[in-house]
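dumping this here before i forget
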Amino acid sequence: MRVQIQVIGLPGSSKLRRFAAQKLDVALSCFSDGIEAASVRLRDINGADRGGVDKLCRVALTLKGNSVVVIEELGSNILLAIERAVDRLRQRVSRQLSRSPA
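structure:
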C-alpha cells in the first residue's frame, strides 16, 4: 500500500506524519491485500493562531478494483481527529471489503 501524508499549517509535521502512518498501518494491516493506496491530509483550517474545532484529518483510500473510501474528521486536537478518522476508516473498509465478491 502506497501512503502519502500531507501536513498543512500544523506544527510538528514529521511527528504527525509518523503518528498517522503508524495508526494507518495498525488499523489496516489485515486489509493490505485489498488496498492500493492511502492519502492523508492533516490541516489546521483556521491557522495556528486560532483555536477551536478546526483541525482536519482527511483520509482517502483507493481499494483494489478502483473504489475509493474517504473519511473526514474535524476536531480541536489533531491527534484525536487522526485516531477517530482511522477507526471509522477501518470499520468502513471492513464493511466494504466483506461485501466485495472474492
